[in-house]
Structure formats: structure tokens, C-alpha cells
Amino acid sequence: MQGYSRHRLIALADIADGDFAEVEATLDGDAESLILYRDGDHVRAWLNVCPHAGRRLDWAPGKFLKSREGLLVCAAHGASFELGEGLCVAGPCRGSHLRAIAVSVVGDEVLLGSCGSGFSRELFQDSTDS
Ligand code: FES
């Protein structure tokens, strides 16, 4: 990550463990909504865009559905995503992935990486990577 500056998204303490948060970030000059999921001291992030029909997954801003099985459920048509790689395991886009975004936790801050003068699409993680 040499040469990257980082942008603060949210305090880790503002996300309950096992819960979600929604933040906006500027990616390639566009304001995008991100889903953040906290798992202990780790946070994963995806674009808040469902691969089924491109809708937001939250039923109200920052309010996400989590099933009893621990899946993120899209409020639009019920696609269900596991929270490791954002893979849709049930519903109309089964087999598709949410678009992963690189974030990291430094101290009590959740940070978005950026490169040079702006965010680079290169920082979109291929969600098939592990
Ligand atoms: S837009 Fe998410 S399930 Fe249809």
C-alpha cells in the first residue's frame, strides 16, 4: 500500500459487532454508498448495489436486514449474501457477488484506501480473491 493515503469512513465503535453501517465515499469522483460489516476487529465493505437489479440493499438508509442464518438480505427482492466474500447464496442473483471495496481498520478508525489524488478503481477488490 505504499504511496496510498487513506480516508476515514467511520469510527469502529460506531458499528456494533456483527452489525452493519452505511457510509458514503467518493470513488472515482462519484459519491457511492458503501455497506460496512463489522466482524470483531475486522470490517468488510461492499458497494451498496445489489447485483440483481442494481438497487440498494438497505430498507432505509443504513438499515440492513440480517437473516437468522447470518446472511445479508437485500430488501428489494430478498437476495441473500454470505458475509465473507459477499456471495449471493439464495435468491434471484444466486452465484453473483457484491462488489468488494478495500477498507482497513487502524486503531479505532475504519479507513478507505486511496491512491494519488483520488480513489482508483484499482482498489476495488476482486471479490473472488480471498
Ligand atoms: S435488487 Fe436485490 S434482490 Fe433484487
- CATH top level is Mainly Beta
Q: Rg from C-alpha positions?
A: 14 Å
Please identify which CATH superfamily we are dealing with: Rieske [2Fe-2S] iron-sulphur domain
Globally, the shape reads globular
Helix content: under 10%
Structural class: mainly beta
Give a structural overview.
The protein is mainly β. It has a single domain (4-123), classed as Rieske [2Fe-2S] iron-sulphur domain (Rieske Iron-sulfur Protein, 3-layer Sandwich), CATH 2.102.10.10. The chain is 0% helix and 42% strand. The chain contains no helices and 11 strands. It has a 4-stranded antiparallel β-sheet, with no helix packed on it. A 4-stranded antiparallel β-sheet has the order 5-6-7-8, with no helix packed on it. A hairpin with a 2-residue loop joins β3 (30-39) and β4 (42-47). The radius of gyration is 14 Å and the shape is globular. It starts with a strand and ends in a 15-residue tail after the last strand. The model is unreliable at 1-5 and 114-130 (pLDDT under 50).
List the helices and strands and how they pair.
Elements: E1 4-11, E2 20-27, E3 30-39, E4 42-47, E5 65-66, E6 72-73, E7 80-81, E8 88-90, E9 100-101, E10 103-106, E11 109-115
Antiparallel strand pairs: 1-11, 2-3, 3-4, 4-9, 5-6, 6-7, 7-8, 10-11
Bound molecules: FE2/S2 (inorganic) cluster.
The site of FE2/S2 (inorganic) cluster has 11 residues, from loops.
Q: Briefly, what is this?
A:
This protein is mainly β and 130 residues long. The chain has strands spanning 4-11, 20-27, 30-39, 42-47, 65-66, 72-73, 80-81, 88-90, 100-101, 103-106, 109-115.
